[in-house]
Amino acid sequence: MQFHLNGFHDGDPSLSEAAKGRSEFQGDIPGELDVLIIGSGPAGLTLAAQLASYPNISTRIVEQKSGPMKRGQADGISCRSMEMFNAFGFADQVMKEGYWVNETTFWSPDPEDKEKIVRIGRVQDVEDGLSEMPHIILNQARVHDMYLDIMHKSPSRLDVDYGLTMIDLKVDPQGGDYPVTVTLKHTEEEAEGSEKTVQARYVVGCDGARSAVRNAIGRELKGDYAYQAWGVMDVLAVTDFPDFRFKTIIKSANEGSILIIPREGGYLVRIYVELDQLKQRGESKDITLERVISASNNIFKPYSIDVKDVGWWSVYEVGHSITDKFDDVPDGQAADRLPHVFIAGDACHTHSAKAGQGMNVSMGDTFNLGWKLISVLNGKSAPELLHSYSNERQAVAQDLIDFDHRWARIMSAPPEEHDETNNESPLFQKHFIEHSRFTAGLSVKYRSSALTGKDTWQNLASGFEIGTRFHSAPVIRLGDAKRVHIGDTITADTRWHLYAFSGSKNPSGPDSQISKLCDYLEHDPNSPILKHNPKGDDVDSVISICGIFQQHHHKLDFESLPSLLKPLKGCFQIKDYEKIFCPDLKTGDDIFDMRGINREKGCIVTVRPDQYVAHILPLDAYDELAKFFSGFLLDKA
Amino acid sequence: MQFHLNGFHDGDPSLSEAAKGRSEFQGDIPGELDVLIIGSGPAGLTLAAQLASYPNISTRIVEQKSGPMKRGQADGISCRSMEMFNAFGFADQVMKEGYWVNETTFWSPDPEDKEKIVRIGRVQDVEDGLSEMPHIILNQARVHDMYLDIMHKSPSRLDVDYGLTMIDLKVDPQGGDYPVTVTLKHTEEEAEGSEKTVQARYVVGCDGARSAVRNAIGRELKGDYAYQAWGVMDVLAVTDFPDFRFKTIIKSANEGSILIIPREGGYLVRIYVELDQLKQRGESKDITLERVISASNNIFKPYSIDVKDVGWWSVYEVGHSITDKFDDVPDGQAADRLPHVFIAGDACHTHSAKAGQGMNVSMGDTFNLGWKLISVLNGKSAPELLHSYSNERQAVAQDLIDFDHRWARIMSAPPEEHDETNNESPLFQKHFIEHSRFTAGLSVKYRSSALTGKDTWQNLASGFEIGTRFHSAPVIRLGDAKRVHIGDTITADTRWHLYAFSGSKNPSGPDSQISKLCDYLEHDPNSPILKHNPKGDDVDSVISICGIFQQHHHKLDFESLPSLLKPLKGCFQIKDYEKIFCPDLKTGDDIFDMRGINREKGCIVTVRPDQYVAHILPLDAYDELAKFFSGFLLDKA
Predict the structure, then answer these.
(1) What is the mean pLDDT of residues A171-183?
(2) What pLDDT sits at residue A354?
(3) Mean pLDDT of all residues belonging to chain A
């Protein structure tokens, strides 16, 4: 955390000063808005938490419920979402409160007595080195609380407007600055039934599987259903089943399957129980809690479970669905028409609960959309950038639906008999490992586009695959010798990041490649920093550069390094000491080795505001670098 | 964190339900109190935060200032204090906000040109393995905020009563249940000057170096002064000195010394500057900020510092002082009289700022006192226990004063010339390393007493030295395979902890030593658990036992282990899965090796509520164990 740049301030450093005119009471929704978000689930809040940092952008988020969620149904937080939470600054809080999925265990019928289950395998849930973050289980409502806290502490003092539902939305592509007209209706108390019309530049529908926004722009969720009912319950229970606090997959011989997901706090456990094959949708609605518990006990044999308290339970039918486009621009009209309405999360794709994707993909949607909207509204990018949201995220959602299908088939396949004399691990354990990148949220790869460079120089940094998330690694910060994660340099703002990895030549002399690169970036009229950074703003406010050198941090002289790596910032022009890094040679976790950096040549790794690797270029590819940024950043006014 | 034991609860798990009759508005101070704390600095708040968990104990804390501290002068947080913060649950927040002291560097006059300084050494600030916690710099006011947050979220909803100063205190040893009479005076606004009398069972003076409580019980701070003025300033500055964000000690040839302590947030830096030798106390009061800055620049040569903004500055004179006893019982009367008034922190010992001890020792005082007061007030211990506070903490303070003297001499010794051809590290770097256990707060060793056993069986666990703080180590929790720190099992309550380390015999059979120990503890009429645990309370509410086994966690069957290690707790009698541990054999951090546990015999390590090792006993020393606890715990009513 960096703070006190413009002088010492009392109190909580995460509490920003309120912008002019903003206070705890945000008042009535104005008639004109830059961004209106419909729905305050994970997708809506991830977006609102980003926009809240920009009080110059007028944003509101409405929710038809009467107040914040108290207990959510989603609970799985992937490594990838944790990395994103880290950019928002609350990953540590989630790690503290949540259950850590450390190992997953697998149970099947005992070959000696098929009425009994036996453990046939166990596997580390997140393989070593996959992410610096763990896989966590935490009640969705707590994630909401953390986003709400960011919003409350932001300069905007943004809060959700509860008790408002959207009843109409119209887009007039020729409608000037505020082309979207939305009618909201109060659902609460004295104002109940009264309506309000808002004109917005952009509307984002995060309003769930029954999305009114999606319907209003004429899009449709298309999906398929497995005609399979599952029960789910959060229980306090006593059992002799030994893996009750492990993520566990149990397949019994004849009674169906169970998925155990231990919950936060050390006691509560979520159990998914396979119930009946259904003849038609909706048939599961009469299934009782007693039925779900007794089905569990049948599967658990020879163990049993004595349910003492049920926090929540439900029965659902497995299904997946997706919308073919995530904005309001009709197919084939992208060249002539700009998007003004977007849909995100369950509004455009739904997943089966057990693959643990729903909340994660939804948040990923609006983490993709947020920086784009802000860049456009702040005049840093042209509005054409916004087409990329649907392009990028629809493909991701489709991939995950395909994964979901595969995983559902694996879960519902008949149990295998485990042969103790055979050293092979059981098949569903193998499948589990194969799919671990999906479960961890790390299978996303954006295709080549204006935002994602070609892989011409991929071999300069083989461990930073273009289009995938920037895979952090530990480094030593030169300025204070702290071991940190290089990924911690990215916060949830709209900045782009250049990571300049040094080649083998003398790094600190004025002739070194990094010095020359910094010189170009700082002084050349064609430099993307000079071209795109608003005058008067800190030099790293649009594109931030960090240098990573190969030497031990005792062998590198801070003061001799290029000035762009230790820029003077803020009203007093104070030096930033947190942009220069060395490998951790003490532990041997050398980022150059870990991420396959070409030690002779070095390289520039360009990273998007949403933590995805955008491009890899040689240290002297100045023109390519400038051209890349010109593809989506406007020249400064 | 463990929660949801008695059913799922919405919201922040650290927010306790308010006890009956408690709310955000705690109302007027009642005429009778169990505990009255005078002063809301680190000592007072550390005590209040412990007492706040017990709404049955009536506690108030008064402060003469009008509101919470905004910017404090103390900033160094030792590893030991961080371990204590971990028991309170906010170490992670401090790690997130604070500056990490990673390396300390040493500068002396350049032998070639004595007008210039050169770096002559650097050293890792906290040696590997000394503590699982870092050495942190964070504004004292933020530590206050975190304690206040605990108090606000406690069942008591305790808050500080600001604007109240103590003007009189009298103790009548024969005065019945509430033998201390305190007169408080309002210092604020409409109530200014009005007085209030309170009768208290116990009063704790945490009211600083000018303590009115200390004066009222006739104790005196005795000390000595170095007649040396130092300047201190928190600055935003630009400099070419390369170690500006390292803890750095500079000794110039003729201009004096500097100590640099970088502050939280990445920009702010605290600089201590040696100024004049004084002829008499108080002589430094005319020294100006300009003088402090120009003295710095003289020492920094050939570097310079351009101060852009000063958050806070002061000039002080080095001194140390101590009181000979920390309670109101006159010397030699301990057998006949019980203590009712205590003093803590600066009220009974002051240190020089640069040794970084002040705030840490103060918090250590009341972390020692807190559990004792609570145990006595809750009827678990006889009030004689309270004599141990002064006995234990006065000795600690005296040790630290001695260290402080040594350290002050080292700091003010003339600079040495560093001979580059000599591989020896410079002398003050050597001294720094020698004293690192003091700086880290880890030099405290309580002497043998009712609370601290003899070292008869110390060799069974050589790494857990009796009387010193329980040195945590990583372990794998069997119930969910999470890598945790064994020390995380201790929270800031009044519980005692038994860590039963298994011997080499079959650990999980009913004949194993741990099984027999658990059987004794659970069923034998002489068991300290049966004798001291109130009926109806959870079995681990007074003495909690954890088992640590030598096997890989995959080789140990959870369900076969003794029931006392997986007790049923709470209103639903739910199993606790967080009391059984195995070594981390994957990383090789094996707690048995790290802490010198006798692998053949195993042992019981007994740990006090304040995280100090109380005793080490063989696994079958049932009588000794029972006798030890009978030394300070009452039989249950």
Answers:
(1) 94
(2) 67
(3) 93
With respect to residue B307, please indicate whether it lies within any of the assigned structural domains: yes
List the structure tokens of B159.
């808050």
In this prediction, the residues of chain B whose per-residue pLDDT falls under 50 are none
| B71 has a chain A CB within 8 A of its CB | yes
Q: Find chain A residues with C-beta within 8 A of B94's C-beta.
A: none
SS3 percent helix, strand, coil of chain B, rounded to 5, is 30, 25, 45
The CATH number covering residue B501 comes to: 3.40.30.20
Return d(Cα B54, Cα B52) in angstroms, integer. Answer: 5
Q: Please count the other Cβ atoms lying within 10 Å of the Cβ belonging to residue B296.
A: 27
Which CATH number covers residue B250? 3.30.9.10
Return the number of other C-beta atoms located less than 10 Å from residue A530's C-beta: 18
CB contact under 8 A, B262 and A480: yes
Contacts of A361 (CB under 8 A, 6+ apart): A345, A349, A351, A396, A397, A400, A441
What is the CATH classification number for the domain harbouring A167?
A: 3.50.50.60
Chain B partners within 8 Å of A262 (Cβ): 480
A100:B558 CB<8 A: no
pLDDT in tens, B62-112: 999 999 988 878 789 999 999 999 999 999 999 999 999 999 999 999 999
Among B318, B341, B364, the domain boundary falls at: B318
**What's the confidence (pLDDT) of residue B603?**
98
Q: Provide, as residue numbers in chain A, all residues whose Cβ is less than 8 Å from the Cβ of B554.
A: 122
Per-residue model confidence (pLDDT) at position B225: 74
Please tell me whether residues B534 and B589 are part of one structural domain: yes
A472 and A396 both lie in a single domain: no
Looking at the fold, whether B215 and B250 belong to one and the same domain comes out as: no
Domain final position from B264, B287, B318:
B318
What domain range includes position B397? Answer: 32-71+139-221+323-404
Is B262 within a domain?
yes
pTM higher than 0.90 for the full model? yes
Range A604-631 average pLDDT: 98
Query: Is residue B149 domain-shared with residue B121, that is, in the same domain?
Result: no
Of the candidate ranges A511-515, A517-521, B177-181, the one whose mean pLDDT is the lowest: A511-515
Q: Closest Cα of chain B to A123: distance in Å?
A: 11
CB-based burial of residue A548 (10 Å sphere; 0-12 exposed, 13-18 middle, 19+ buried)? buried
When CB atoms are compared, the residue of B12, B263, B577 closest to A245 is B577
Read off the pLDDT band of A421 (50, 70, 90): low
CA distance B461 to A375: 60
Q: Do A238 and B575 touch (CB under 8 A)?
A: yes
Q: What is the ipTM of this complex?
A: 0.94
A127 touches chain B (CB under 8 A): no
Say if residue A229 is in the same domain as residue A217. Answer: no
> Does B560 lie in the same domain as B622?
yes
Do residue B400 and residue B298 come from a single domain? no
Whole-number pLDDT of residue B418: 61
Rounded-to-integer distance, Cα B20 and Cα B199, Å:
23
Q: How many separate domains does chain B show?
A: 3
Q: Which H or E element spans position A250?
A: strand A247-251
CB spacing of B246 vs A3 below 8 angstroms: no
Q: Kindly list the residues from chain A whose CB atom is less than 8 angstroms away from the CB atom of residue B557.
A: 242
Establish if A313 belongs to a structural domain.
yes
B38 falls within a domain: yes
Q: In terms of domains, do B372 and B515 share one?
A: no
Element (H, E) at B85: helix B79-88
CA distance B608 to chain A (A): 24
- Closest by Cβ to A311, choosing from B8, B99, B262: B8
End-to-end CA distance of chain A: 31
- The predicted pLDDT at position A150 comes to 97
- Residue in B263, B266, B558 nearest the CB of A242: B558
8 Å CB contact between B473 and B484: no
